[in-house]
Amino acid sequence: MSFLTRRKAIDTIGAVGETQRLHRTLGWPHLIGLGVGAIVGTGIYTLIGVGAERARPAVIIAFVVAGLVCVCAALAYAELATLMPVSGSAYTYSYAVIGEGVAWVIGWSLVLEYSVVCSAVAVGWSGYAVGFLLAAGIDVPLALAAGPHAGGIINLPAILIVAAVAGLLLVGTRESATLNMALVVLKIAALAAFVVLAMKAFDAGNFRPFMPYGFAAHEFDGQVRGVMAAAAIIFFAFYGFDAVSTAAEETKNPARDLTIGIIGSMVVCTLVYMAVAAAAIGAMPFMEFSRSGEPLAYVLRQLGHPGVATLIGAVADVALPTVILAFMFGQSRIFFVMARDRMLPERLGRVNAKGTPVAVTIGTAIVVSGIAGFFPLAEIAELANAGTLAAFVAVGLCLIVLRVRRPDLPRQFRAPMPWVVGLVAIFGCLYLFISLPAVTQGRFLIWNLIGAGVYLAYGARKSRLAGQ
User: Fold this and answer.
1) At what angle are helices 59-83 and 227-234 packed, to 10 degrees?
2) Distance (Å, rounded) from C-alpha 238 to C-alpha 233?
3) Residues whose CB falls within 8 Å of the CB of residue 443, separated by 6 or more in sequence, listed in order
4) Contact present, 30 and 325 (Cβ < 8 Å)
5) 245 φ, ψ to 5°?
6) Taking the domains of the chain in order of start, what are their residue ranges?
7) CA 156 vs CA 115, 152, 312, 342, 383: distances in Å
8) Vertex 215: Cα angle to 400 and 212 (nearest 5)
């Protein structure tokens, strides 16, 4: 079983052949755009309703809890990404610090996370797209607008948007990142408009009772409720900064740009989320918008701003795909690096003349489309959270282990209070994981059992380190 502890050498981790090397074309503005584009999306446009249903007004505390854990994880990511500026994110860090066995589990979990996130956002986008088209007088048949769980046959809009984003990624990395930046600005402007209009109807009475289900996750009326139950899914609204670390190998100045991109995107998004959550709950009792597929647009319509609500829906239609773009970008890079390490078929670890991994991008789009076409949003988001939490635990552990094992390594960015940051990331994520529904934990276990079989049958024997 020694193959489980094989480790990459940190000093040579970036040494790869020319046909397997990604091109450095991105600066820090692109990375902030990538981070904000990944973070601000379905989580605030759609899942705020799900969170409010689980925690009522205390969903604001759920945002704080999830945000605190993510800030610690972001600090750990910033240190490790600048120390090892190559693609692969938590998979690469685990491979160099802990060993091949853990690296495989994390890489396999990240493949799940990024694929399922793309699917969840595509489903969320579909809800806004159908609402926008209906307002414009176009009624999309239910059979083509929802999966079997919602009385339909297939969620065709979700599939179409995934195909469109995949096509954009195939055009080129820099071109995709530039368009992403423009859409991110549009998305933030729409949320700012929502806050301004909703705050005019602010009523403090909507915050009482503030925490009717308590702090811990527990079952109530057949549903898991409580602040931590909300945080376990609201967590979906915060992560995305880890997608920035997958672009390390395509960054012009990794030491500077990765730090700005990871920390900057988290700061911007935390401020935006708190403002939007407070405005939504203050403007209207949570039970009125919590079950809507487009809660922010719903709030504005009820406040007498149908035109702006339609505009918010239109912006969501245009800008939510930035999340799909960021995570599909990240997923293809994780898959690409695993193939480059021969943990998966090596032919998948090749790029075209523009530095784009074509085969992996197309394969990702097919899988994401299948999930988005047939599964519900909440279950998809929770499953994505499980994969992310595993990766964040690994990154927090890598931070601590490297500080002990290799304190001599030159670090372009040093996380403050590394033991506190690392332990909060580790135990905070573990607590969020046990707050997920048991069915989600079970699905995550099944996914990793399948992954273990793939690793033992292929990766353990074919790994680039197997012959060393």
Assistant:
1) 40
2) 10
3) 383, 386
4) no
5) -65, -25
6) 19-467
7) 17, 10, 22, 35, 22
8) 160
CA-CA distance, 208 to 57, in Å (whole number)?
A: 7
Longest Cα separation, the chain? 68
Tokens representing 97 are 């610090």
d(CA 332, CA 173) in angstroms, rounded, equals 12
Supply the pLDDT for residue 402: 93
Reference 72, options 401, 397, 329; nearest CA is: 397
Residue type, 177: A
How many residues are present in the chain? 468
CA 374/CA 150 separation, integer angstroms: 9
- Element of type H or E holding 30: helix 28-39
CA angle 244, 246, 251 (to 5 degrees): 75
Write the secondary structure of 211-262 as one string of H (helix), E (strand) and C (coil): CCCCCCCEEECCEEECHHHHHHHHHHHCCCHHHHHCCHHHECCHHHHHHHHH
DSSP state letter for 294? S
pLDDT tens digit string along 84-103?
Answer: 877 778 898 999 999 999 99
* Measured distance CA(286)–CA(48) in Å, rounded: 10
At 245-288, the pLDDT tens digits run 666 667 777 767 777 877 777 777 777 887 888 888 888 876 66
Topology annotation, domain 19-467:
Amino acid/polyamine transporter I (1.20.1740)
Contact 166, 364 (CB under 8 A): yes
Q: 96, 84 in Cβ contact below 8 A?
A: yes
Q: Which residues contact 428 (CB under 8 A, 6 or more apart)?
A: 65, 68, 69, 72
Q: What's CA 122's distance to the chain center, in Å?
A: 13
Backbone angles phi, psi at 224, to 5 degrees: -80, 120
Task: Compute the distance between CA of residue 10 and CA of residue 95 in angstroms, rounded to an integer.
Answer: 9
Residue in the structure block whose two tokens are 């301004």: 196
